[in-house]
Write a structure and sequence with these properties.
The protein has 155 residues and is mainly alpha-helical. It is built from two helices and two strands; from the N terminus they run H-E-E-H. The chain has a two-stranded antiparallel ribbon.
């Protein structure tokens, strides 16, 4: 009877050894899979981070591009207005009085002389000008009293 106990014990030890080897190989396999999963996750995380950075950059660009466009357009309009004023091709050209046209307005502080929509605005008191030789509202245009219109359009 002792032989079967030794055989049983030997079989149990063999099964235990086989289970140990099986568990060790399963452990090695799990470690290999874990390393591969970790590498794959890191690769996807890097790709995702790059994609997110690109998307954030694109979002910020789309968010601020209209502001940049408006700023650029505003600078262009300011430059265009400066250019128009410098070249005197403005939308509201200045018409100076002459001895034939609006002679009563020559040298007057109140003279405006700008064209709006094809109509000349001579001054605030007499929008179409004074018909006679001496305007009752005429004031001497002196260097001390600057013409508001000239200040706006000359700077």
């Amino acid at each position: 009877m002792e032989d079967w106990q030794k055989d049983f014990l030997a079989t149990v030890e063999l099964v235990a050894l086989e289970c140990q080897q099986c568990l060790e190989s399963v452990g090695e396999l799990v470690e290999a899979i874990a390393e591969e999963v970790t590498e794959t996750c890191q690769t996807y995380a890097e790709e995702m981070q790059n994609d997110i950075e690109v998307e954030i950059d694109r979002f910020i660009e789309n968010l601020f591009q209209p502001i940049i466009d408006i700023h650029t357009e505003f600078e262009y309009v300011i430059f265009e207005e400066e250019l128009v004023e410098e070249t005197d091709f403005s939308l509201n050209p200045k018409v100076e009085p002459t001895s034939e046209i609006h002679s009563a307005c020559m040298g007057c502080e109140n003279y405006h002389g700008r064209v709006y929509g094809g109509n000349l605005l001579v001054c605030g008191m007499h929008p179409y000008g004074w018909d006679g030789e001496n305007c009752p509202d005429w004031e001497q245009n002196t260097p001390e009293t600057s013409n508001f219109d000239e200040d706006i359009f000359s700077s």
